[in-house]
UniProtKB/TrEMBL annotation:
Organism: Enteractinococcus coprophilus
One Gene Ontology cellular component: plasma membrane
Subcellular location per the Swiss-Prot or TrEMBL entry: Cell inner membrane
Coiled coil ranges: none
A GO biological process held by the record: amino acid transmembrane transport
Keywords: Cell inner membrane, Cell membrane, Membrane, Transmembrane, Transmembrane helix, Transport
Protein name (database record): Serine transporter
Key word Transport present: yes
Renumbered residue ranges of the record's region Disordered: 1-28
Positions of transmembrane segments: 36-54, 60-82, 103-130, 150-166, 178-196, 216-240, 261-281, 306-329, 354-377, 383-401, 413-433
UniProt keyword annotation of Flavoprotein present: no
Amino acid sequence: MSQEPADPESRPAVDGATVADDGRGSTKRRQFENSWAISLFGTAVGAGILFLPMNAGAGGLWPLVIATVLIGPMTFFAHRGLSRFVSASQNPGADITVVARELFGAVGGQVVTVLYFLAIFPIVLIYGIAITNTVDSLLVAQLNWGSPPRWLLSGVLIALMMLVMIRGQRVMLVVMQWLVYPLIAALLGVTLYLIPSWQPSFVSETTHSWGEMGQALLLVIPVLIFAFNFSPAVSQYTLAMQRRYGSESDARGNVVLRRTTILLVIFTMGFVWSTILALGVDGLQEAREANLPVLSYLAQVMDNPFIGYIGPAVAIAAIGSSFFGHYLGAAEGAAGIMRSVATKARKNPSEQTISVTVAVFIFLSTWLVAILDIGILDMIETLAGPIIAVVLYLMPMYAIHHFDALERYRGKVSNVFTAVAGIAAVACIIYRITVTGL
């Protein structure tokens, strides 16, 4: 997902000038920008969207309404801030880890690199759990087979996904980009199909006090951030914008980010609203306790062949496609950390040694977590969501207000909004630890 979309006829900007905007150039520009919007959308669509309904619907109607209104601006402003952070380097082609070292220094840059890894790696673990539970549900509920040993099923599935990565990353990236289109169609199809099953009682059954609604909104923010996160692709996306548009890369990049955000809000929140209204309060709770993606749970409880097979198929495709994109980021971050540790130890391992070590580490850790079947929503709420918030929401805002390279972006109300959203996500884990004991 983080690879620049193919555009063989595109020409990079020269001396900060943009590509000529004649009729043909305008068409190629739209193709280039739309291709990136779809790629960013595909990076975000994964396990998060499939688990978001259980969390978003738990607090009732009004927290869901507020979350729907807030998530669009949150997503746009946060990813714009991270993109601007990447563009702060004076060295062309510098990625996020290089920019972090330039701005924060060697130690601070290493801290940012570790946080960047920790923001992505838990998502890989989550996908290991999700793909195992989804396939197991398909085998038992739809195919009427017995449930295979969990250690064997999880090991085979994770190994297959990693084999695709190791043996053909370039082909994988192209295939995953094309998978986004049927995923969009399938999400829209499920959203519309569930309309006759909507339960109006959801509105009255989930009415809570203002305090309970505030608590529910606080707890849903990390899952929203997780479900709408495409930060693993932002670094390469920003570099692609710079190569093509030069000094106008920020303005054109905002157009792409806006399109991506609109796509995510329409298809993701439309899907969330439809599934929540169809399941009702009891169904949402049962799906959460089963630790299953919402489509897999729908396939179990709805006696309909369409949902029975399309649900798990969409879940597997979404989890698999997003796993690939996040694996690239996790592996890159782990390799960077390993090189830093090796340098301090005055050792010089080969790139092959680093790649093999990282692959083995990710496989074993993902396999172990999948066997243990740790609660996915608990991992999102207490680990993935808050760390993503630090890297995506708080770190760029701090950099904008402390480094001269980003001075021109200061004094914006959107900066305050983004920082508050990030603080709220981090506050969620503090709340869960201190109040609920999780």
